[in-house]
Amino acid sequence: MTDTPAQPTAGDVADWWANGICRMEPGVVELRGIPVQELIGHRGLVSTIWLMVRGGSPTADEAALLEAAMVASVDHGPQAPSIAIARMTVTCGVGMNNAMASGVNALGDSHGGAGQQCVELLSEIVARESAGAELSDATAEVVAEYRARDPYLPGFGHRFHPIDPRRNPLLSLVDAAVSAGTIEGRHAAAARAVEALLNQGRSKPVPMNIDGATAVIYAELGFAPELARGLFVLSRSVGILAHAWEESNQGRRNKGPMPTSILPTYR
After folding, report:
1. Whether this model's pTM surpasses 0.85
2. 246 Cβ contact list (under 8 Å, min separation 6)
3. Which of 180, 209, 238, 257 could make a disulfide contact with 74, Cβ separation 3.0–4.6 Å?
4. Looking at residue 8, what DSSP letter applies?
């Protein structure tokens, strides 16, 4: 005789959705144990992002550094696939949420993933240095291993900018944070070691780009590589929203990737 499975109880269902992020019941909304009414008007968005994904609260200096990284990544023009897709989508008779989701869904390994990949790269260098290797040796080893898999090294070089205009301001803030003791600076040193290695014997430099500079900040602040990508997506969502909204007010219908006067080559 087969035993009848026990029927789930209300407690079983409640436990199914157990979480440590948000407590909600009638009259109560708590985020990581803090009543939302204590956050409203007292905590900024970036600090709240930290609270939600990490728990705890950043210092003012940590929050400022994270905000700088996120501000730097909000947009890179309509030639970026995620922005172009959002602008086209919003002309197709769908809502702003559809346009934003379509743009965000284009952010993958090739477009939007370099920050996560660079955090992984820098973290591996720092790990080997912690195990006793010299920084220069750890850098050479890790870069060689990465390049054996892919000639592209995430976080360095840019197809548009000889020097990414976002690089120097972010690294200046990183240096100031290291001097103030806000961050340790080991990932920043690793990134500069990679940059120096890449530029050996080159007449045309391959400088760190926005993905590298923000990867330094995310890694120094202790964010996991996957969260580095998520934070980039949050940042770029601002640009996606702005472009989708602008496009929605221009009166176009069914905007395609090229003006209608230009037809694709048929092969």
Report:
1. yes
2. 87
3. 238
4. P
